[in-house]
Amino acid sequence: MVAKPKVAICWLGSCGGCDEAVVDLNEAILQVTSAVDVIFWPVALDFKYHHLEALEKGEVALSIINGHIRNSEQEEVAKLLREKSQLVLAFGACACFGGTPGMANFRSKEDIFNWVYRDAPTVVNPKGNYPQPRSQANGKELTLPEFYEQVFALNQVIDVDYYLPGCPPPPDLIANAVNAVLEGKLPPKGSTLAPHKALCDTCKRNETKPDKISIKDIKRIHEVEASPDTCFLAQGILCMGIATRGGCGESCININMPCRGCFGPVEGVEDSGAKFISALAAMLDAENDEEMKQLIDKLDDLAGYTYRFTLPVSLLQRKRA
Amino acid sequence: MSDFEPKIVCFSCKFSWGYLANETSLSSQIKNWIPIICSGKVDAKHIMEAFKHGADGVLILGCPEGDCHYQDGNFETKKRVQLLHKVLDSYGIEPERVRMELSLDPEGKRIPELVKSMSETVRGLGPVRQI
Ligand code: SF4
Ligand code: SF4
To answer: Model ipTM?
Structure first.
């Protein structure tokens, strides 16, 4: 019997949603597991890092890695998986772009530690203890992974072969990606295994989008009763669909929530936030600076909104030293 | 920080700024001077890229309000800059580091002056703080 290809599934800085998305393949997962040997999957199977270490270089056909990298353990595991794998798939917004945890890059590590271990109202820490990579207790040395200065996307730490965005990626694209690997029908290295165009291209509300959108008043989704059929932008509600890669299956749009951008930039665009800002500026219908200011003042956290999933890979982020 | 020499990138629209001037002599006076056709061409991405490549400030010179050769490119960029101020602020890049001046100066005499005054503002702020 020919040995089945080995597959590793791993979470780094992750919420577990991406692993859940794999489980959500339901019956399809049975087909997948009959075609491959899952040799590592911390969330579901009891394999340890030393099992990975024992493998030969390149012995794993595919590593599916979700989550961002912010500490030394995540970096070590990512590098170990890279060494043992022929292909690495960055799975989910966190692995592809840093994801929502990437918004922490608006703050320094110092700010974060001070808040979490000193200033937050629920913290009681009279000795002022902060987590240390090494510390002594009862004559023994304890170690913890080192917390890095910032959040990184997977490709800022290891070489990545393919990308599958989404928070989490939808089942049809996961199944397509796995099948493409199994059948050896892969696009060029570096490709994103999702459509190239913006979400608007397949959004059924697109028909109601006027040729020229002019927003006189910005509304937030919880402040209004949004029409379930009309383009959000036409209703004055911000929607990232214009600057976001399609392929998610419009799961947010279908439950009457505007797109938040988890599929990242469309093909060929580096920074979806910058694109969105330019497009939004054109849509804001202000006659003068004062009107513009009034509109902008309504945007509480524009940077957080535009970089909700992509801050670590945005133009202005520091590259990894 | 006393020897901090701010790097200013200046985009200027050729329709109003320095079209009668000798471009070579102006560009020898002003480092990183980028004449363009219509200030409306300046995208959020270009401004962010300038900072990414080490600029400490960005100055955009456009035609007087209501006088854009392409209807309202200058006002469109002004809106973009206003939005971008808000985003850049979250990155720790102060709004004063991106300035727009809408006026007319065919001989481009004021360009070096404006760049200089922008340099002074930015010198006071210091180099861009990296988050
Ligand atoms: S991409 Fe979304 S679902 Fe996946 S780990 Fe990150 S936050 Fe969770
Ligand atoms: S802007 Fe949003 S609601 Fe409008 S067509 Fe695009 S994705 Fe759909």
So the answer is: 0.88
